[in-house]
Design goal:
25 strands
Length: 326
């Protein structure tokens, strides 16, 4: 579904406040500048060669590493993951992981030579090539990153249960096959996701069927972007009954068809509940080798029970292609 209204609120906050946000998303490296330097995936890092001193190599100087969201911002005090790599790939073709640390500003004692330093902050990250001598020195990385917080409602501002709402964040630009690279799946509503500045393609899914809204949202460095979309959908519960208001018949299988007759979803149970996008549908119920059907309409924000009467008037002859027999 492409309908829906997006309300975008960009809230500027001081960088020192933003850096104190909880680390709600685990640090990973997809979509950050490290990829341009062909760093391996985390699972492919070669281990440090000196396990007795994982963060230190003798004979060198101490390097203090810090990171900022923006050039003029404050140092990030928590939530960073630091990785220091050697520049020469090993026999397996991987860059050796020399040292790592978590938190804010970190110090490493490294042997003289060249290194690649990568800082991750949620899904934001930056990489810098440094040279270490025998003197102490400091290096600072600018992540050029901000935060994104997503939510969705129904018409009139009605809240959607968080358990039924998920977001996926994709790269803005499709590849040659027309597909967008998935950056983060299954983001919970109101979780703060740290991302490098840029535009991202956001997919909001209410339920698990067809209530989907897509939008492009810009993340600015040093700011928290809050975006709320409005779903035009409703939760529908189906019951097969012998009379209006009667008990639901067990052992019933259901098929939901679009207005054009295309299958939307199949489910089994006396009570079948689905979130469906606004529109016209046909529900088909099968019970004890008999088939019944009914047309119904979904209006955004109006949850409803749809009863299908197990009567001859609603019965369908399978040999007639699901057409009514009356």
């Amino acid at each position: 579904m492409t309908g829906g209204v997006i309300r975008l609120f960009v809230v500027f906050i001081a960088t020192i406040v933003f850096t104190a946000l909880p680390a709600l998303v685990s640090a990973q490296e997809g979509g950050d500048p490290a990829a341009q330097l062909q760093l391996p995936a985390i699972s492919s890092f070669a281990p440090a060669t000196d396990s007795s001193t994982p963060l230190a190599l003798g004979g060198g100087g101490e390097v203090t590493l810090s990171a900022k969201l923006i050039e003029e911002g404050e140092d990030i005090s928590r939530g960073l993951v630091w990785r220091v790599f050697g520049q020469e790939a090993g026999p397996d073709g991987k860059l050796p992981l020399i040292a790592s640390a978590q938190g804010g500003t970190s110090s490493f004692h490294l042997a003289p030579g060249g290194y690649l330093v990568h800082a991750s902050y949620g899904r934001a990250g930056a990489t810098k090539r440094i040279t270490v001598g025998r003197e102490d020195k400091s290096e600072s990385l600018v992540l050029d990153a901000g935060g994104l917080k997503l939510d969705a409602t129904l018409a009139g501002g009605i809240r959607i249960p968080a358990s039924k709402l998920k977001f996926s964040i994709y790269d803005e630009t499709p590849d040659a096959s027309g597909e967008r690279a998935l950056i983060i799946p299954d983001v919970s509503p109101n979780a703060v996701v740290r991302l490098n500045s840029g535009t991202y393609h956001i997919v909001s899914t209410y339920g698990s069927v067809n209530a989907v809204i897509r939008s492009d949202i810009r993340v600015d460095a040093g700011k928290l972007t809050e975006a709320t979309v409005e779903h035009k959908a409703a939760e529908i519960t189906f019951k097969l009954v012998r009379e209006a208001g009667g008990e639901a018949l067990a052992d019933t299988s259901w098929s939901v068809l679009s207005s054009s007759g295309d299958p939307v979803r199949e489910v089994v149970g006396a009570f079948a509940s689905l979130v469906l996008a606004e529109g016209e549908y046909t529900i088909v119920a099968k019970n004890k080798e008999r088939i019944y059907q009914r047309d119904f309409t979904v209006q955004g924000g109006r949850n409803q029970d749809v009863e299908v009467l197990a009567t001859d008037a609603n019965a369908v002859n399978e040999t007639e292609g699901m057409e009514s027999t009356d």
